[in-house]
Every structure is written in C-alpha cells, then in structure tokens.
Amino acid sequence: MTVTVHFYSYYKELTGCADTTATVSAPATLRELVRELQVRFPRLAALENTMLLAVGVEYQPRDYILREGDAVALFPPVQGG
Amino acid sequence: MTVTVHFYSYYKELTGCADTTATVSAPATLRELVRELQVRFPRLAALENTMLLAVGVEYQPRDYILREGDAVALFPPVQGG
Amino acid sequence: MRRELHLTTAPIDEAALVAARPRDPALGAVLHFTGVVRGTEGAHPIRALDYEAFEAMARHQFGVLFDEIARRWPIASVRLVHRLGPVAAGEPSLWVELTAPHRGEAFAAAQWLIDEMKRVVPIWKHPVA
Amino acid sequence: MRRELHLTTAPIDEAALVAARPRDPALGAVLHFTGVVRGTEGAHPIRALDYEAFEAMARHQFGVLFDEIARRWPIASVRLVHRLGPVAAGEPSLWVELTAPHRGEAFAAAQWLIDEMKRVVPIWKHPVA
Hints:
Chain A is an alpha+beta fold. Chain A has two helices and five strands; from the N terminus they run βαβαβββ. Chain A starts with a strand and ends in a 6-residue tail after the last strand. The relative contact order of chain A is 0.30. By secondary structure, chain C is α+β, with helices and mostly antiparallel strands. Chain C has one domain (2-128): Alpha-Beta Complex (Aldehyde Oxidoreductase, domain 3). Chain C has three helices and nine strands. Chain C is globular. The mean pLDDT of chain C is 95. Chains in contact: A-D, B-C, C-D. Chains C and D meet through helix 1, strand 2 and helix 3 of C and helix 1, strand 2 and helix 3 of D. Strand 2 (29-36) of chain C pairs antiparallel with strand 2 of chain D, so a sheet runs across the interface.
C-alpha cells in the first residue's frame, strides 16, 4: 500500500525532502509508517515525542490505520501568531 | 465651616441641584455632612448604601475629617464604558 | 509606560488611532477594545446613551489606574478614549489600546483596566429613548 | 456567527479591516488583537520572520476552532488574518477581531482562540537574520 508523505518546517531540512511516497504492507498504522520513515530519514528518530501527524487535514493518533492513497503530513510543533 | 457640595448623575434630579454649599460645625466628618444633606434632600436618604463620596478628585471614607473649603462630591455608582 | 487619555465629545476615529500607534521593535502584542453603544438598555430600545463625567476626577482616577498598570505589568503603552455627551447606538463610546512585549500581559491589563474603570472612574450613562 | 479568514502574503491593513467591520445594534464589544513581529528572537536580533503554512490544513483547523467558539460563546463575528511568507520586524503577522454583545465573552474567546491556534494550526515561523 502506498501513501504520500509531506514534511513541513525544519523536517524538510532534516530529511532533505518536502514530499515523498512510502510503501507499507497493509494493515499498517501511522506508528509503523513513522518507524519506516525513521529508517530512511534517521534524523527524524530523535523527534518522536514532539512530532505531529496528520492525514489529509486532520490530526490523527499513532494507531490510525492507513488507507491506500492517504496523504500523511509529519511536522514539528506549530508556532503561528 | 463651609464646604462646597457637587451632585452627579441622577443625584442632581433627586436633589434638584447640581452644586450647593453646606455649613457644618467643625470638627465634622463626611458622615455628618451626608446626614445634614439628607435632611435638606430627603430623597438621598434611601441611597446611603451605594453612595460614593469624594473630596476633590479622591474617594474618601465616611470618617474623613472635613476641612474648610473642601469640595465634596456625592454620586451614585459609576458606569463608564 | 507611554500613556494617553482623551475624554471627548467627538466621534472616536478608530482608523486614525490605529494609524497613530507608536512603533516599537520590542512590542509583540497590541490589544484594542472598543465598547459600542448597544441599541437596547435592558428590554428597552434606545437611540443613544448620554455620557456624563465628573471630568477632573475622571482624569485623576484614570491616571491612578494607569500608574497601577505600570506597576503590575510590563505594558509599553496605554491609550484610552472615552466619549462624553450623547453617543448614538452602534457608535463606539470607549476605545482602549494596550501594547506589550507579549499578549498575556496585554489581555490581563486590559481586562483589569476596564473592570476598574467601571468601578472607580466617575462617568455615568443616561439612556436617550 | 459570521466568520472570515485570510491567509495572505500581503501586509495587514488594520485601518481597512476596522473600516470594514460590520455594524450590528446588538454588538457591545469589539476586541482586536494584533501580533507584531518583534525585533529579537531569544537574544538574537532578527530582520523578519518567514511564516510557512500547511495551508489546506491551516484553513481547516481554523474552521474547527471557529466552530468551537460558536458553540461555546455568544460571539457575533470573528475575523482573522495571518500573514504568510516574510514579515519584517515591527509589522503585524496576526490580526484577530471578535465582536460580541458583552466584553467578557469577547476576551475569553479571543484568548482561547489564540492559545488554540498556537497549538493546532500548522503554521511555522523561521527567523531571518
């Protein structure tokens, strides 16, 4: 199963990448996707505790079950204002 | 001893008067002045609990000791804004 | 703390007040509160409120409140405009601006100032039917 | 509750926003908060902050916050403008207005909205030295 992945803020610098795709074997949760991305992008590994995860435009918990074609976003704490 | 007295807001309607003078025998407190004004203006008598008192531009308590020439103001609760 | 107080019978020109705001590189938060005359007083429709002040005392009491703000919060400036005389329903009667490095202190000081103003500043309003 | 949201790279024209405020005879309180880019970030002087957004999600999350305000307080209208891209020190990056019958609810909802925005709306700032 393939999902698109988007990085925001300094996650783009840490990964050297704004957008990518990832393939995970279904059924897979967001937690498993993050683990797979941390293997590809080791500098994400230290940020697990503060990492925010969204699917589409909604925040989702780590146990969200991914669906084919989901657009997943990973980003650090937000700082608007 | 003579002091000037100013009424504000609906106290002017209750007394029919904006400014007057009052003579009290020294030493006298604001409490005694108010009592004397309540005799002259009986409609002030019911308002004792919420009446605010100032001398010059400062609020003063009922036991403030009056001085010759003091400008005393009596008014209901304020409502700015 | 910079301070400015206007008690005025002229309409409050919010755009001009905003344009005149002093710029300060340490300033991160600007809070404006505008009090507008509502078209009802209790259940009764009103055309206006007529504001009366004991003006010398009102100025003094606003000064006392501004002093206290300067003591309690790191506020950079306060500007306050209060209308006197008749103010039509729908028009602003009060405009307050506080500027500060951060928003927490601006919100805290603004709420305190308006609460205290309504307790100690000798201004009264009379409905005009 | 009327609502308006602008995410924009253009400067925030506060005077124009104030002039465009809808009039409503039930409205007694107008609260504006303006967040201004400070000239320092920590101890370091900065020229600007560069604001980045995940824009579709930011719009959605602002909508969720506005829905919650409408549920929790009798707010008549909310207008919010957030700059994106570089914003020079001294310039506003955020402008929020809430209108309500009374000031208590306007202050409460404004503070809640800004706190929640900083928790959930995907916007980030990057200092420009």
